[in-house]
Amino acid sequence: MASRVAISKAFSRKGVTTTARRSLSSFPDYVLRAPTTDVSTLDNGLRVGSETVVGSETATVGVWIDAGSRYESAANNGTSHFLEHMAFKGTSKRSQQQLEMEIENMGGHLNAYTSREQTAYFAKVFKKDVGKAVEIISDILLNSKMEESAIEREREVILREMSEVNKNQEELVLDHLHATAFQGSSLGRTILGSEENIRSLTRDDLVDYITTHYTAPRMVVAGAGAIDHEELCGLAAEHFGGLPAAPKNGVEVAMEPAVFTGSDYRVKFNSEDVAHMAIAFPTASWTSEHAFPLMLMQLMLGSYDRAHGIGKNHASNLCQDVAENELAYSLNTFNTCYKDTGLFGCYAVVPDNKVDDTAWYIMNNLIRLVHNPSDSEVERAKVSLKAAMLMNLDGHNNVAEEIGRSLLNYGRRMTPAEVFSRIDAVTTSDIRATAYKFFNDQELAIAAVGGIHELPDYTWFRRHSYWLRY
User: What is the DSSP letter of 256?
Assistant: First the structure.
């Protein structure tokens, strides 16, 4: 094992001011005394990260991989998600039934997910079964049989999953949003892939994807809860030490750049009386200096649901406008980050006769952040963001996922104290500057499905991306 890195060098990095450093003393004790994250790097480049929770009797352990649908071509789009399904269909050591029985007999839970940039396999088990869980995850990742008969059966399973996803209007509209915003690039393709690809992917395609992308430097073994770091490093070395440090042909596949195109995608159904629409601007990556201002802006705009009954008492100006004018059934502000870009905007479910008004209020509130965000709403957003980040650390699954994703995205994990300092360092001027950079007179993307006959055309949205002030 090469280097053991302590992730506590918090405040020497750009973006955290001296004032923020001084505010450390005002942080609650539970922030300053949060468990440390231990990180080690094996000789083949595999990183191992863990957070030990004293007194815990359960643990979550898993592998996070820097590979998702973004690393696919048009020809093999859907491969990473297909592999996620095939991992549970038996290995050279275990049949599918034996794998399921072994997990159930431990009282454990084995799961996986695929996103546009990452794939994860993880298990939640008792303390005594951590070693077994790491061995099982390595087995399904590295020794999957991928029998032709299992591949053929899984095609139909994935097609049924695609059918279910397409019934979820929010997922469908956000997929359309990516497709139009990043058209012609891998970030614009769906995670599941096209129906044609699902029916035509071969075992060779799956194996080629593994040998190309499943290399040690692109993987993180992460654990949280009843975890001993040295033990986890030993288990990782035992079961993943044979991972190659580079692809089989020695050539790393470069990530296709995300090129944003200002555009819209519309699917109109005259028979429907509800519109599902998303409006978004291209923004910044995980590591940008604008990342924390964007997080705060998301909370400043807020989310609304007519069924929740808060109504006109929302703190968010946008939500107040929506409630007072009875515009939307629901509205969510989203801030999605990737390695080199992002999308920031609003998704709304709207009656078909309120689409025009809703679009106006969304654009008006987005551009308002360029000109006059108030100090009070920025401070409120800071408190909300701190609470959300702490609540997201409840549970070993969430902590292990944050360790895995942080090491892949940042190369390290920020402590709660550093996160709080970075939040406190953001000023109202930073909010205005960030909104000006990404929103003011900028191209945007729109996707809408349903009763959208009132939805204004693209040039209307473009004209409303700035205010004329005299």
Answer: P
Write out the two tokens for 187.
């970030």
Q: Count Cβ atoms within 10 A of the Cβ of residue 336 and give its class: 0-12 exposed, 13-18 middle, 19 or more buried.
A: middle
Q: Rounded to whole angstroms, how far apart are CA atoms 49 and 441?
A: 43
Q: Say if CB 457 and CB 361 are below 8 A apart.
A: no
Cβ–Cβ under 8 Å, residues 123 and 227: no
Buried-state track 379-414, b at ≥16 Cβ within 10 A, e below 16:
ebbbebbbeebbeeeeebbebbbbbbbbbbbeebbb
Closest CA to 94 of 43, 37, 132: 132
pLDDT, tens digit (0-9, with 9 covering 90-100), for 422-458: 999 999 999 999 999 999 999 999 999 999 999 999 9
Go through the chain and tell me how many residues it has. Answer: 470
Q: Backbone phi, then psi, for 426, in 5-degree steps?
A: -75, 130
- Tokens describing residue 256: 């296709």
What is the C-alpha to C-alpha distance for residues 329 and 340, in angstroms, rounded to an integer? 33
Q: Which residues are marked as active site?
A: 84, 154
Are the beta carbons of 116 and 191 closer than 8 angstroms?
yes
The predicted-structure confidence for 353-397, as pLDDT tens digits, reads as follows 999 999 999 999 999 999 999 999 999 999 999 999 999 888 999
CA dihedral 224, 228, 231, 233 (to 10 degrees): 50
299-317 per-residue burial string, b: 16 or more CB within 10 A, e: under 16: bbbbbbebeeeeeeebebb
Token output for 175? 């997929």
Q: What is the pTM of this model?
A: 0.91
Q: Which amino acid is at 334?
A: F
Q: Which of 452, 446, 447 is nearest to 272 (CA)?
A: 452
